[in-house]
Sequence to fold (323 residues):
Amino acid sequence: MVYNIFRRAAIVVLLFSGVCHGAGIIPADSLRGTPGQSVTFATSLTPTSEPFVALTWSFNTTINVVTSTNVDVVGEDYEGRISLDKRTGSLVLKNLTEDDSGEYELIIIPHGGLPIQGFVQLDVQSVVSAAAMACPTENLIEGQSSLNLTCDADGTVTSRVWMRKGKPLLPGGRFDFYDDGRVLSISPVHRQDSGVFLCNVSNAISFATAKCKLKVFYGPDEPFIEQDPVGAELEDSVTLLCSADSVPKAKFTWEFKRTVMTGPQHYIEEMQKRHLGQYTCTAHNEITGLEVSTVHMLQDCCVAPSMSALVCIVLTSLGLKLI
Fold:
């Protein structure tokens, strides 16, 4: 009741004065705080020798924090939580909660002067902590698997930024964001997704990071066969080496004239005519279940005496991936 009577009287005086006095009475336009801590609404007024005729602090226009005349009337939610300096109008608000966020207004009626007024915005935010991201436990296969990564944290999160290889991830293509950026969806996964994904969560007063390391299985890509030496002749030692990009590493088999050999390398200690012909290398990935084959023609470089050594080498090189 005292607060309402004083506030109405103060507003009437302000209106009839025709001037809004006290611009800059509260130096800060906005203040920040954390739950459980205190914040001081300081004014720029010089301490007076005697208390003001009256002053009031209100929250979001309608809620009384404290009204001080010849008696002090403290709002129900602020009992035991405030300290008021009656000579400057400064207010200390203790045991903050996030519900204390909002606009605070100060109206003062001094002795022999016009009413003065000030405003300040308070933002109470919990410290961001315990950022976490659950990584998938199933095998991720390129082109087949999709996944959702969820970024959670305690406290007041006002910003989430997903990062990959030092750059922010943007929506589009295989990437989508849901639940205000809390969930990152990748569909389908690609080999380039292997590595660490970061989720940076923050507010105005704190920062935390969650991370997840992905491993994407892929391949095998088309095998590549190398022959050493390239221009082999009969009675030379020859090595055929088969390789293919794959995660996990591919397993290899060779087939020649219905004979099957295992391993990426096939070694011929002394090449004879019976060794000449078509060799097939097959790469197999045990997790993706894929296998790919490539054919190589092994031939005698001197089978045609009129052919120069250079032409022989070129033809043999072309035969490395002859299918």
